[in-house]
Amino acid sequence: MTSLDAQFALAAQRRAKLLATNFVTERLLIRASKHSDLDATYVLANDSAAALYDWMPWAHPAPLLDSMQHYFACVEAKWASREMLDFQWCDKASGALIGKGGFHHIDWTIPKFEIGYWLGSSYVGQGYCTEAVKGLVNFAKTELAARRIEIRSQPNNTASRRVAERAGFTLEGINRQALLGADGTLKDACMYALIVE
After folding, report:
1. pTM for this one?
2. When comparing pLDDT for 118 and 180, which is higher?
3. CA nearest neighbour of 88 among 97, 79, 78
4. What secondary structure letter does DSSP report for 96?
5. Which strands make up the sheet holding 28-32, listed edge to edge?
6. What is the mean pLDDT of residues 95-119?
7. Contact yes or no for 109/130 (Cβ under 8 A)
8. Per-residue confidence at 58, pLDDT binned at 50, 70, 90?
9. Burial call 129-168: b when 16+ CB within 10 Å, e when fewer
10. How confident is the model at residue 57 (pLDDT cuts 50, 70, 90)?
């Protein structure tokens, strides 16, 4: 067996591990997204689209129900295949959906996980996003045996960058034209990373 074969075999073992589908933080229940989450997510996305317009491709020009239906039609299958691990962020007290995020780019050979996230506009400024991202980091460490966790953000998305910094990530540099912007053009990406020793 070559070193490459061994890496792929280990990646397959990591990918096949049975994972918890939810966890809690101080104020949040963070659980795996399901097809039945479509309606609540669409409402929150619609209410928050104006605030997220510059950063989220699904908010540009506006959230489209058929696009979101396609996303939720395959979200559980992508979880089962470990291609993507997407979560709903719910307030523990009320059960209300306040945001979403998870691991949307995964490399099981390292293992490396990129966190993506968005928060409903009425919940901004209360520390929820940082709390959820810290929870995702802990999940990545304990459930996924992550060695590297990444967050990419456009340089002028200061709110997203502050979340990464408050969650303990280090800015490694700016990758030129590394993100497809919401308007379809290429944008620079601040690469934040957290290394698990």
Report:
1. 0.94
2. 118
3. 97
4. -
5. 22-24, 28-32, 85-91, 97-107, 112-119, 148-153, 186-195, 170-180
6. 96
7. no
8. confident
9. bbbbbbbbbebbeeebebeebbbbbbeebeebbebbeebe
10. confident
* Beta strand residue intervals within the chain, DSSP E: 22-24, 28-32, 85-91, 97-107, 112-119, 148-153, 170-180, 186-195
What whole-number distance in Å separates Cα of residue 50 and Cα of residue 107? 32
Give residue-wise pLDDT tens across range 151-178. Answer: 999 999 999 999 999 999 999 999 999 9
Counting every residue written for the chain, the total comes to 197
Pairing of strands 186-195, 170-180: antiparallel
Asked whether the beta carbons of 161 and 151 are under 8 A apart, the reply is no
How do 112-119 and 85-91 pair as beta strands? unpaired
What whole-number distance in Å separates Cα of residue 170 and Cα of residue 3? 30
8 A C-beta contact, residue 97 and residue 89:
yes
In the block, which residue shows the tokens 């030129």? 176
The first and second tokens of residue 142, run together, are 């304990």
Confidence of residue 181 (pLDDT cuts 50, 70, 90): confident
> For residue 15, which of 98, 87, 80 has the smallest C-alpha distance?
80
